[in-house]
Amino acid sequence: MLLVSEPSIGSDEKHALAEVIDSNWITMGSRVEAFERAFAQQHQADEAVAVNSCTAGLHAALQALGVGPGDEVLVPSLSFVATANCVLYVGATPVFVDIETVEVPLISLDDATAKLTARTKAVIVMHYAGYMVDGLAWRSFADKHGLLLIEDSAHAVGAARGPVFGDAAVFSFYGNKNMTTAEGGMVIASDAEVERRIRRARGHGMTSGTAERLQSREPTYDVTMLGFNYRMSELNAAIGLVQLRSLDAWNRQRERLARAYRRRLSQQCPTVSVPFPEPRPAAFHILPVLLPALVERFAVMERMRESGIQTTFHYPPIHLLSYYRDLFPLLRLAHTEAFAARELTLPLHPKLTELDVEQVVGSLAAAIAS
């Protein structure tokens, strides 16, 4: 079956894991540090903090930035649920913001402006499908209103996305992302003190880690803050170091495949539209398309599965999930709901070829016609 997403892992990753096992040091140590340095350099930053998930990174970043009870945080509803959950983790209130349009499914600056209150403390922007929001516009918006700006960059990793413009940016290395460590994440903060707080918070708020105490003549520690167990292991970091070397080449392949999809879809599926008609910086994480309004999505998905092609959709709007619907029962986001009702995610990963793209588009055309 052609999968929506598939990690590119092989002998180099196996060798890197074997080296960690042979070293007999598998908890956070020199490989995590090396991965942090390499990732920071790749993203034009001085420092980066490795954590065990993007969700952990978002939580730690909000805490380190001082977001807490009584604060409101503007968030997109078109995202994975973790984007909103992390706001609740720190005791703040998520305020859901609509997307711009179904053609540009990114958090709307106009709707964000309309939802500002005296309690608004921060905004989280999410680079949906790997397509970057307008960093200059959002940085100006945050500065004008005295807000913290956090980038949920789970979909946008690599040099193509450009440098971090938020007060913090958080990345994901889950198995379906552009590069993977199996589980893991990374945080880049613009302020050195914020970075230091995140680094300490990931290890229970302790003043030293296991590796540091091993080398110290006084193997003790203090706890100076409420922290968490958000550390990355040496095994995860070893995979990350290997994956990072191929990231930009993989992203270029994703871009080539995305362009092939656009050509094929315009020829064979003219009633299907592809969001983001205008070029913008992108990491091409997923390939979302919009089905015609009267086409039954699940029937199309089932027909394509019968042809050996997996599809899915990104995402059920967070505000319509049962937990959040109970919290915000009257909330409606017209553009987000319209987009989510028609969106279909097609296979996109570096192992695919343009012949695979042709097969996927042919199957989609047949599924819509039947």
Question: What do these coordinates show?
Answer:
The protein has 370 residues and is an alpha/beta fold. The protein folds into two domains: 11-242, Aspartate Aminotransferase, domain 2, CATH 3.40.640; 247-369, Aspartate Aminotransferase, domain 1 (Alpha-Beta Complex). It is built from 13 helices and nine strands. The chain has helices spanning 11-23, 30-42, 54-64, 82-89, 109-114, 135-145, 192-201, 210-215, 234-268, 297-306, 322-327, 334-342, 354-369, and strands at residues 49-51, 72-76, 93-97, 120-126, 148-152, 168-172, 185-189, 287-290, 343-346. Helix 3 (54-64) packs parallel to helix 4 and helix 9 packs across helix 13 (354-369). The model has no long low-confidence stretch (mean pLDDT 96).
Q: Could you provide a short overview of the structure?
A:
By secondary structure, this protein is an alpha/beta fold. Helix content is 42%, strand content 12%. It contains 13 helices and nine strands.
How are the SSEs ordered, and which strands pair?
Layout: H1 11-23, H2 30-42, E1 49-51, H3 54-64, E2 72-76, H4 82-89, E3 93-97, H5 109-114, E4 120-126, H6 135-145, E5 148-152, E6 168-172, E7 185-189, H7 192-201, H8 210-215, H9 234-268, E8 287-290, H10 297-306, H11 322-327, H12 334-342, E9 343-346, H13 354-369
Parallel strand pairs: 2-3, 2-4, 4-5, 5-6
Antiparallel strand pairs: 1-7, 6-7, 8-9
Helix pairs in contact: 1-9, 2-9, 3-4, 3-7, 9-13, 10-13
